[in-house]
Design goal:
The chain has 173 residues and is an alpha/beta fold. Helix content is 40%, strand content 17%.
Length: 173
């Protein structure tokens, strides 16, 4: 199953989804879970590629990387609490093209740096200024354009002394 949660990061609304891992299996239930993961990755704006910092050269991770490397990806090296201070684990050369953050999910270390990396990748140097349009992806632009017409109809209905119930009909679409 997918586990999802919304939060706001620097004024940016974020939906984060924890998915099943990707690995070789013959189990039909795991295969369905991994297909959901692939579908979710294909719709995502950003992938957090989490690897185990105490074992960063897992062959299975390389296979996952091959499936996601065309996406917007941040390498998240977890279990940083198990590393010697100041030591960066040796990662496969292929990963070196990715922005990387070392964290400890157990102790909460590195989370601020991860949040900063997410903001940097999502905004790509675009500053948010009041009165300035900001639509980061085509998918989001299409969604906003589709939402505009029902909002305008509801606004016009309320402005034209139509009952709140009738105006709300436009907002349910």
């Amino acid at each position: 199953d997918l586990v999802e949660d919304y939060f706001c990061l620097g004024g940016i609304p974020i939906l984060i989804t924890d998915t099943a891992g990707l690995h070789a299996t013959d189990d039909p239930v795991e295969i369905i879970g991994m297909q959901k993961t692939r579908d979710n990755i294909s719709r995502s704006d950003l992938v957090l590629f989490v690897i185990d910092g105490s074992a960063p050269k897992e062959k299975g991770d390389l296979a996952v990387f091959e499936q996601i490397n065309a996406r917007n990806v941040i390498l998240v090296i977890n279990k940083g609490d198990l590393l010697n201070p100041g030591v960066v684990p040796e990662i496969p050369l292929a990963y070196s093209v990715l922005p990387a953050v070392i964290i400890s999910a157990l102790k909460g270390n590195g989370i601020d740096e991860l949040e900063k990396s997410i903001q940097e990748v999502c905004l790509r140097g675009v500053s948010i200024n009041p009165g300035r349009d900001l639509v980061p992806t085509l998918r989001q632009r299409i969604a906003l354009e589709q939402a505009l017409e029902p909002l305008l109809r509801a606004y016009r209905a309320l402005d034209g002394s139509v009952s709140d119930e009738l105006a709300a009909e436009d907002l349910e679409t």
